[in-house]
Automatic annotation (TrEMBL):
Keywords: Disulfide bond, Signal. This is Hemolymph lipopolysaccharide-binding protein-like isoform X2. The lineage of its organism: Eukaryota, Metazoa, Spiralia, Lophotrochozoa, Mollusca. PANTHER family: C-TYPE LECTIN DOMAIN-CONTAINING PROTEIN (PTHR22801:SF63), LITHOSTATHINE (PTHR22801). It comes from the Eukaryota.
């Protein structure tokens, strides 16, 4: 048990500079904003309610994804306009749970849903996604909308606890 916790702390420190809480997860009591998820908060827009944790340090897409996964969460999925309004409140360049790593041009949200017609969806900035130089497979909020960027760049990120 101790070695598992130590590995988790070291791993989280290497990928994100911060370790998640050491508390044992208790599904009966650990919910958004409490216990294991005390650093997450409820965000609302219209009928949409999300449980999010905004990073305070940048990371690569892989590092951000791993950090969220070890917390039992995923990179944030902002697949509706009300969810995009929540994302836009941050006003930072932020990795989200959308990429075309499996198939170029086929953008998949981290809940498994495909974003149809990305360029005409209204979610991306003008002339995006562009796959500039053939290396842009990960997605960030940039300005008010999304942009594809190299996954090896470091940006802030947002984890989502599914409600």
């Amino acid at each position: 048990m101790f070695s598992s916790i130590l590995v988790l702390i070291l791993y989280a420190t290497v990928i994100g500079g911060q370790a998640p809480p050491i508390d044992t997860f208790d599904p009966a009591h650990d919910q958004c904003g409490t216990g294991f998820f005390s650093d997450f908060k409820i965000e609302k827009e219209g009928d949409v309610v999300m449980c999010l944790r905004w990073s305070s340090w940048p990371n690569t897409f892989a590092g951000a994804k791993k950090y969220c996964l070890i917390r039992g969460t995923r990179l944030g999925v902002f697949n509706t306009w009300d969810k995009m309004k929540i994302l836009q409140r941050q006003n930072n360049v932020t990795f989200v749970g959308l990429d075309d790593l499996q198939t170029e041009g086929k953008f998949i949200w981290h809940n498994g849903e495909q974003l149809e017609n990305p360029r005409s969806s209204g979610f991306f900035n003008l002339n995006e996604p562009s796959n500039s130089e053939g290396v842009e497979d990960c997605v960030v909020l940039q300005g008010r909308l999304l942009n594809d960027v190299p996954c090896t760049m470091s940006y802030l990120f947002v984890c989502e606890l599914e409600l």
